[in-house]
Amino acid sequence: MSGRFNQLARHLSHPLANFTHPSAATVARTALAATAMTSSAKFFENKSKTIHTAACLIIGDEVLGGKTIDTNSAYFARWCFSLGIQLKRIEVIADIEDEIIEGVRRMSANYDFVVTSGGIGPTHDDITYQSIAKAFGLPLKLYEPAFERMKKLSKPHTLQADFHWDKPSPALTARLRMIELPYDESIDEEKQSLFVADDSWVPIATVNGNVHILPGVPRLFEKLLDGLKEVVVPRLADPEGNGSYRVLISTPLPESSVAAYLTDLALRVLPHGVKVGSYPRWGKKRNTVTLVGSNKEYIDSLVADVEKNVQGRRVSREDEDDPPSDAETDQ
């Protein structure tokens, strides 16, 4: 680092009381309480193992309060489906440190690939980085490559006429909170963070090898998540990235009429990795049966039998066979 950057980093190591960096003693106590939650060996184990399962942790009071509609979890679900990753859990939690710590530890332990969304802005209630750092007994460190990209790719607000990148100020401190990342001193810095978009300064921080911290702004979340494909695809069970395969079958029968058949079918196809779904479409005359899995040939071989037993047909979208005036149906 340059002398000026070191000077600036030292100044910024004493931010406002609400988000003070943990002292060495605090970090040590947190690490002990976490019972060695993280280590370089665990980091590389999680970072290299085959990805079968995923989870998503949406962080933000604004989502729980109804101010913001969460679209990131739906985008992540489609992203996982397209790659053949089994999305096992989505949770929405408040900007509360203890909840973030508990949620991210549990997901990291139980799933192969975890993303978080939200809580990495410049204000006092953006506590995702510091909370995840505490979850794994890590300090925060100003990430210089992100600082250099931030200076190049972002501009100060027009109402911040006196703002300077090399002059300490509350505005600069607030900006740099967005690039103070959890840091494991035993692991090379470049292995803990990556940039996936040439036109963005926002890094994706990776903690414990399988937790990826993403912003909550949908357009940024989507861009960075798509950028992760290049890293994720080689670690899939199917490196070709063919993803999951879904068949929709439209039926005029109520769910109660097809329940017994679908229960038997689900048991028969489960060993082949196929899931059977039944979805009522309230107020419509046709319901939907789905077959989902990775074995396209096997799923296609089931279609004729399913069509016969539910008196339906394969469709490309749920409403394909709806009559013009589809008012109601007997459920």
From TrEMBL:
SMART domains: MoCF_biosynth
GO BP terms in the entry: flavin-containing compound metabolic process
Record GO terms (molecular function): FAD diphosphatase activity
Organism name: Talaromyces proteolyticus
Taxonomic lineage: Eukaryota, Fungi, Dikarya, Ascomycota, Pezizomycotina
Span of domain MoaB/Mog: 55-236
Residue ranges with Acidic residues bias: 318-331
Region (Disordered): 310-331
Name assigned to this protein: Molybdopterin binding domain protein
Origin: domain of life: Eukaryota
SUPFAM superfamilies named among the record's database cross-references: Molybdenum cofactor biosynthesis proteins
